[in-house]
Write a structure and sequence with these properties.
CATH architecture: Alpha-Beta Barrel
CATH topology: TIM Barrel
Helix content: 25-40%
Strand content: 15-25%
Number of strands: 10
Number of helices: 9
Number of domains: 1
Largest sheet: 8 strands, parallel, barrel
Distance between the termini: 36 Å
Strand order of the largest sheet: 3-4-5-6-7-8-9-10
Shape: globular
CATH superfamily: Dihydropteroate synthase-like
Radius of gyration: 18 Å
Structural class: alpha/beta
Length: 290
């Protein structure tokens, strides 16, 4: 690994700092997905151009136990084309304002690769930046992060969504992803970014088999001393091997969520909050009664 030795190896962080408020990760958190997109692989089109419906969906997820609402207006499924900053802002900003007003204490994450969108979203009341690009698609994003004072989710992806499934030939999947994280963490630390969360990028430039290899090795990425977010909800890695659809993949999703928790994931990014909440509650009982 090129630069992993430069990163202090610690046990995983147990808190994240949200604009001065410490949030515990001793018990895994649930990030509920709110897609304001027309073509996301599972729920695309349900909430686009409808702030009222989006607010109701956020309310439903919060009542079911979501700790974080992750708002995005650009599909990043395989073969998707990135939308413009303006298109994202038109969808996202009104919804952030509505959710923040209705639920002052909920944590809001903004799912974007654009610096301008991240900056305006944080000003409107978002707390976390969830960037699937690892800073690759907009070079200005890393530069503005220190001024935003927000936790940053660093995701592994080899290239843009429209080409990422062509980039699955790794020399060594684990070591290549470690190099990717090492280089970016070092750069982020030099810039002064304090709170970083890792996302292994399930489905982003990986085969089904590679996704399952990573699922087995989540805990090994704890060498970075950072919390780990796992986003596998209803993805191809579940429904393709079972020869079902994303709509039929809840049972498989819940099983893999339990496996991810046993491998020390700190945050689950999910479409189905109630089921994920139940999964975490039972996992917590197992952990507390060894």
């Amino acid at each position: 690994m090129k630069s992993i030795d430069k990163i202090t190896k610690l046990s995983s962080n147990t808190t994240i700092n949200l604009q001065g408020k410490l949030i515990s990760l001793q018990k895994p958190l649930i990030m509920g997905v709110l897609n304001l997109t027309k073509d996301s692989f599972y729920d695309g089109g349900r909430y686009i151009n409808n702030a009222e419906k989006a607010l109701l969906r956020a309310k439903e997820m919060i009542e079911e136990g979501a700790d974080i609402i992750d708002i995005g207006a650009c599909s990043t499924r395989p073969n998707a084309i990135l939308v413009s900053e303006k298109e994202e802002l038109d969808q996202i900003i009104p919804v952030i304002g509505d959710i923040r007003k209705a639920f002052p204490d909920i944590i809001i994450s903004i799912d974007t690769v654009w610096a301008k969108v991240a900056e305006k979203a944080i000003k409107e009341g978002a707390n976390i930046i969830n960037d699937i690009s690892g800073g690759q698609f907009d070079t200005k994003l890393f530069e503005i992060l220190p001024s935003l004072n927000a936790p940053y989710i660093l995701t592994h992806t080899p290239t843009t969504p429209d080409k990422m499934q062509e980039k699955t030939n790794y020399k060594n999947l684990f070591l290549d992803i470690c190099d990717y994280f090492s280089e970016r963490i070092e750069k982020l630390r030099e810039l002064g970014v304090k709170d970083i969360i890792l996302d292994l990028g399930f489905g982003f430039g990986k085969t089904v088999e590679q996704n399952y290899f990573l699922l087995n090795h989540i805990q090994d990425f704890k060498t970075f001393g950072l919390p780990i977010l796992t986003g596998i909800s209803r993805k191809t890695m579940i429904y393709k091997p079972l020869d079902i659809t994303a709509e039929q993949a809840l049972n498989g999703t819940t099983f893999l969520h339990a496996f991810a928790l046993m491998n020390k994931s700190n945050i689950l990014r999910v479409h189905d909050v109630k089921e994920a909440k139940q999964c975490i509650e039972l996992y917590h009982l197992i952990e507390n009664n060894r």
